[in-house]
Amino acid sequence: MKIVALLAAATLFGWASLACAQSANPHAGHAPASPGAAQAANEAGDQARTAFEAANTRMHRDMAIAYSGNPDLDFARSMIPHHQGALDMARIELQHGKDPALRKLAQEVVAAQEKEIAFLRGWLKKHAP
Fold first, then answer.
1. For residue 82, which of 39, 37, 42, 112 has the smallest C-alpha distance?
2. Where are the domains of the chain?
3. Is the Cβ–Cβ distance between 79 and 56 less than 8 Å?
4. How far is residue 90's CA from residue 112's CA, in Å, rounded to a whole number?
5. What is the pLDDT along the chain (129 residues), one digit of tens a residue?
6. Which long-range contacts (CB under 8 A, 24 or more apart) does 113-122 make?
7. Of 78, 53, 83, whose CA–CA distance to 68 is shortest?
8. Residue 91's pLDDT is what?
């Protein structure tokens, strides 16, 4: 009879300890995020990183113009790929980013850079040899 009483007491003590441990740790008993969710987040981050790297490489390659010695022409010709790089990065933010303030800024960058690229291309049509 004493053994049964001891086992019952141990069981009750075990349940009480578990309840105390769970109340001390608000995350106790919660399963971690599924590995699939973590993997998807990592893949999205990798896709964004790859896109940013490609945009940066393309922008710097395209900015390496043959300088004419005419500061106006050289400015217009090099600023187009510079602004295109900003457009590309803003579009990556819109595709992958989550922060509302950065997404809003990215939308503003797209609108502004598209206008500036159009202006520069128009200027070059009128002034470039």
1. 112
2. 1-30, 31-127
3. no
4. 11
5. 554 444 444 444 444 444 444 445 554 454 555 667 777 778 888 999 999 999 999 999 999 999 999 999 999 999 999 999 999 999 999 999 999 999 999 999 999 999 999 999 999 999 998
6. 113/83, 113/84, 113/86, 113/87, 114/87, 116/79, 116/83, 117/80, 117/83, 117/84, 117/87, 120/76, 120/79, 120/80, 120/83, 121/80
7. 78
8. 98
Residue 39 token pair: 């993997």
DSSP string, 45-71: HHHHHHHHHHHHHHHHHHH-----S-H
Neighbours of 123 (CB within 10 A): 14
Q: Which residue has the tokens 């106006």?
A: 72
Q: Count of H helices and E strands in the chain?
A: 4, 0
25 phi, psi to nearest 5 deg: -115, 105
Query: Burial letters for 89-110: b for 16+ Cβ neighbours within 10 Å, e otherwise?
Result: bbbbbeeeeeeeeeeeebeebb
